[in-house]
Design goal:
Organism: Methanococcus aeolicus (strain ATCC BAA-1280 / DSM 17508 / OCM 812 / Nankai-3)
Number of domains: 2
CATH topology of the largest domain: Spore Coat Polysaccharide Biosynthesis Protein SpsA, Chain A
Strand content: 15-25%
Radius of gyration: 20 Å
GO molecular function, one term: hexosyltransferase activity
CATH architecture of the largest domain: Alpha-Beta Complex
Protein name: Glycosyl transferase family 2
Keywords: Membrane, Transferase, Transmembrane, Transmembrane helix
Helix content: 40-55%
InterPro entries: Glyco_trans_2-like, Nucleotide-diphossugar_trans
């Protein structure tokens, strides 16, 4: 192996041994004589208490490519782990991969070809993802990350164009991101975002502000495992809602509140179905009235100038929880009927 691989597949993990195996298998079955000198795996373990370390040791013994493993002495939080896994890497580019996700067959060679063909121009590659159930057996339909998706790759020359075409939530989905490691490490001022769960978004936005070009690779290269939101499990509903709003705070810091980029991100946040879906989900979970007051106060400064806030979010907040519980099985029944037909 050369001293410096072209691609480091960087996996931050914590207590995910049962899923990490799938991720590693999806990588190693794609390694061959032509690419084995170009790829390494880097794992930063956030002090897992399961058998993650033993699992990695087993894979290190049989892997054709280096597997670099670092284990923190204590859990330092997701953001620290994102930073650490890139720090321990050697590759020119890092593919950030959630330990519960997988790389689709052919994905590694596709990304290597893109880096070799466009790496002198592009610092951030975004890949398309397939959706799966928790067992990776059943496929789930996902919206395309690319707005007005015509099936073609897209090279964005500036941040405004990129933010206008790539769905907001995909900037936070680490497994879709392949980044120039040197440019990533050059970004300063990220410390205040450690603990936000979106330190990587701050770095990627900052790279874009510094003229890093973005390319969307319109191929399904990563598999996303559903029903497995670790932040929702750890922080519960309101904490997850607050994480989503960090897009706005980060955009304000990086681009400025009067920038075109900030306006795009703010509008996307309000118009996305993800936030409204969270409110409905929270209603079904029976959160206290005080939580909804907090959510409203958080959302109002951002959304009050948009019509959607008044005609969509206000009714969502005001509709009693029992109504959602009545309507939910009816809607699910209709969907199931359509699926059978």
């Amino acid at each position: 192996m050369t001293d410096k691989p072209l691609l480091s597949i960087c996996i931050p993990t914590y207590n995910r041994a049962e899923f990490l195996k799938d991720a590693l298998d999806s990588i190693l079955r794609q390694i061959n004589e032509n690419n084995k000198d170009k790829v390494e795996i880097c794992i930063s373990d956030n002090a897992s208490e399961d058998n993650t370390e033993e699992l990695v040791n087993e894979y290190q013994k049989k892997s054709q490519i280096p597997i670099i493993y670092h284990k923190n002495e204590k859990n330092m939080g997701a953001d620290y782990n994102y930073l650490k896994v890139v720090e321990i890497a050697n590759g020119e580019y890092c593919w950030l991969l959630g330990s519960d996700d997988i790389i689709e067959d052919g994905g590694i060679d596709t990304v290597l070809e893109e880096i070799e063909g466009n790496g002198d121009v592009v610092d951030i590659f975004i890949v398309k993802q397939k959706g799966y159930d928790k067992e990776l057996k059943k496929k789930i339909n996902l919206r395309s990350p690319l707005i007005n998706d015509d099936g073609n790759d897209v090279l964005f020359n500036n941040s405004v164009n990129a933010l206008n075409r790539v769905e907001l939530w995909d900037w936070g989905y680490i497994s879709a991101m392949v980044i120039n490691r040197k440019k990533w490490l050059s970004i300063k001022g990220y410390e205040k975002w450690i603990g936000s769960a979106y330190v990587h978004v701050y770095i990627i936005y900052s790279m874009m502000k510094q003229s890093s070009k973005v390319k969307f690779i319109n191929k399904y290269l990563v598999g996303w495992r559903s029903d497995n939101d670790s932040f929702l499990n750890e922080l519960k509903e309101y904490g997850r809602f607050k994480i989503d709003l960090n897009y706005i705070s980060i955009a304000k810091e990086v681009f400025g509140k009067n920038s075109e980029e900030y306006k795009i991100i703010e509008k996307m946040l309000i118009n996305t179905p993800v936030l409204s879906g969270r409110i409905v989900s929270f209603k079904l979970s029976g959160l206290s009235y005080n939580i909804y007051i907090k959510m409203f106060k958080d959302l109002y400064p951002i959304g009050h100038k948009y019509p959607r806030f008044w005609v969509w979010y206000i009714p969502l907040f005001l509709t009693p929880s029992f109504v959602y519980k009545i309507v939910r099985p009816i809607v699910k029944g209709i969907k199931n009927t359509k699926h059978k037909i």
